Amino acid sequence: MKKIIIAIDGFSSCGKSTMAKDLAREVGYIYIDTGAMYRAVTLYCIEHNLFNADGTIREEELKTQMQDIHISFRLDAETQRPVTYLNGADVENRIRTMEVSSRVSPVATLGFVREALVRQQQEMGKDKGIVMDGRDIGTVVFPDAELKIFVTASAEIRARRRYDELKAKGEEASFEEILHNVEERDRIDQNREVSPLRKADDAVLLDNSNMTIAEQKEWLKRQFDKAV
Ligand code: C5P
């Protein structure tokens, strides 16, 4: 069967990664969560004091340190879920905190950060057989992807899902704080100068506000079957 590239873009916390991960597992493709890569750079900035007290980034220092930031993914042998590594350390849980969520979008506006990560993402997908999710996969990383999906849902529903997810993990969470974070990331992602979040003209739109995970999974598999 021919191998293709599947680009899944869309707003924050709209379930892209769950859909993408499930499809990749089902069809035997590699799954890459590009948001995890921007989150890992953000965690690096937090741990290396690259944020000023006012929340701005020490850009020149980060620029010189980009070559020291190595991000990779490995499958957890037990759960078969991808785990994010930053310079050899498992950072999967540490990149999902509210602190990282609230600092990641400004980091993702920096052109030199995007260039470095986009280059790595293109390298990861060069043999196809990949499902990649993010904000600019269908527009910038793989503009020729054979299947492009753009996912959206109302901000309240996305915040509710994120809230339930954090609660299920036993983490403290405030619904209002999460809703604010989701809306703020949407705003920054859509309005940044470099690779703003937008639907590629040839992407299929999916509003999953009222869909179950099983329904989304079936819908995506049908799109895949049509594309291969
Ligand atoms: O997908 P996730 O919500 O984990 O992504 C975290 C942040 O990384 C997004 O809010 C966005 O600012 C940034 N991002 C991006 N381009 C991508 C993936 C994520 O700018 N391809």
UniProtKB/TrEMBL annotation:
Q: Catalysed reaction(s)?
A: CMP + ATP = CDP + ADP; dCMP + ATP = dCDP + ADP
Taxonomic source organism: Bacteroides caecicola
First-level EC class: transferase
Any Pfam family from its record, for instance, is Cytidylate_kin
**Which subcellular locations apply to this protein?**
Cytoplasm
Positions bound to ATP: 10-18
Q: Which gene encodes it?
A: cmk
Q: Which PANTHER family match?
A: CYTIDYLATE KINASE (PTHR21299:SF2), CYTIDYLATE KINASE/PANTOATE-BETA-ALANINE LIGASE (PTHR21299)
> What is the protein's name according to its record?
Cytidylate kinase
| Alphabetized InterPro entries for the sequence | Cytidylate_kin (IPR003136), Cytidylate_kinase_dom (IPR011994), P-loop_NTPase (IPR027417)
Drop me one GO molecular function for this one: kinase activity
* Classification via HAMAP family: Cytidyl_kinase_type1 (MF_00238)
Per the record, the similarity remark reads: Belongs to the cytidylate kinase family. Type 1 subfamily.
Q: Could you tell me the keywords of this UniProt record?
A: ATP-binding, Cytoplasm, Kinase, Nucleotide-binding, Transferase
Per UniProt, residues of the Cytidylate kinase domain are 6-216
Q: What is its EC number?
A: 2.7.4.25
Q: What lineage does the source organism belong to? A: Bacteria, Pseudomonadati, Bacteroidota, Bacteroidia, Bacteroidales
